[in-house]
Amino acid sequence: MSDVWVLVDHEDGTTSKVTHQLLTAARSLAKETGGEPVAVFLGNGWATAKERLEKFGAAKALVGESEDFAKYVASPQVEVLSKLITERQPWGVLFASVAGGKEIATRVAARLQLGVLADSTNVVVDGGKPVAEYSAFGGSTLVKKTLKKGPFLVCVKPNAFVAEEAPVSLKEESVDVAVSDDAKRVVVSERVQKEAGGRPPVESAAIIVSGGRGLQEPANFSVVEALADQLGAAVGASRAAVDAGWYPHSNQVGQTGKTVSPQLYIAVGISGAIQHRAGMQTSKTIVAINKDAEAPIFQMVDFGVVGDLFDILPKLTEEIEARKSG
């Protein structure tokens, strides 16, 4: 078959933003493969998810609802998805390049003896096969790779594609979700919900404003937060700022932190060491604000501002606020 599948990333039926992005990518790929974009939904809350999947263009959905997907760790999804792929032979499957998506993708690949491409920032079809882009060697090189054997498994980073609505009437098919005892060996004993803040998480944000050692002290992250709030953005931090205790490690962008690919990345007071560039260089548009005109960050930006961030950021924040209100 030539259908392009998307494994739906969701929480009790509430689909994630990256799922909508993957469906947008699947629609584009399906035009090249001659198939349809198909959502594969495993878990609970299908009634909640259906409307959103239709809104973003899923022509068909393979639906498997079972408590087993929440009670046990990954193995039920791996088992059911592997069986579906073997039976139906889609052109390929797109996964969210997040912890859960990558775990399922790699385990399915091992079970079916297929290759898998992880952390892709773009996927196109060439000669009937996927060509995926991703960064390598500490972010210094942009690599294009393809898989020779299908079905093709590709993990795509959040924000690699812009989610575009394309409402359709979705065809729904229930699938067998019988799970073996072997897949039930690792049990989820407890789920702890992390308290959500008012800003989006760094790893999935479309806009990120990051601060570094140029902020001079932790209290000065307030100017970064103010700009981020006006833009509806996440707040990131360089390794130097995190190591100094200025901002939580969960917000660190870089090779030893989060690897991100937002539509807009604003680096404030960040010199641009290779460790940091490895985590954000696939951002669609990069803006840097730094008083050092020789800072390495300026070698990779789309727009660079040389100046004092303590003068520039408040004025930029005020201007954005004025335009939003006017």
Structural account:
The protein is of the alpha/beta class. It has two domains: 4-184, HUPs (Rossmann fold, 3-Layer(aba) Sandwich), CATH 3.40.50.620; 202-325, Rossmann fold (3-Layer(aba) Sandwich), CATH 3.40.50. Helix content is 30%, strand content 25%. The chain is built from nine helices and 17 strands. Strands 7-11-6-1-4-5-12 form a seven-stranded parallel sheet. Helix 6 (221-231) links the parallel strand 13 and strand 14 (234-237). Helix 4 crosses helix 5 and helix 6 (221-231) packs parallel to helix 9. The chain is elongated, with a radius of gyration of 21 Å. The mean pLDDT is 92.
Summarize the entry for a quick read.
With 326 residues, this protein is of the alpha/beta class. Helices cover 30% and strands 25% of the residues. A hairpin with a 4-residue loop joins strand 9 and strand 10.
Tell me the name of the CATH class of the largest domain: Alpha Beta
Number of strands: 17
Order of helices and strands: EEEHEHEHHEHEEEEEEEHEHEHEEH
Assigned CATH architecture of the largest domain: 3-Layer(aba) Sandwich
Rg of Cα set: 21 Å
The SS-based structural class is alpha/beta
SSE layout and pairings?
Layout: E1 4-7, E2 10-11, E3 14-15, H1 17-33, E4 37-42, H2 46-55, E5 60-64, H3 68-71, H4 75-88, E6 92-96, H5 99-112, E7 116-120, E8 122-126, E9 129-136, E10 141-146, E11 152-156, E12 171-174, E13 207-211, H6 221-231, E14 234-237, H7 239-243, E15 264-268, H8 274-280, E16 285-290, E17 303-306, H9 309-325
Parallel strand pairs: 1-4, 1-6, 4-5, 5-12, 6-11, 7-11, 13-14, 13-15, 15-16, 16-17
Antiparallel strand pairs: 2-3, 8-9, 9-10
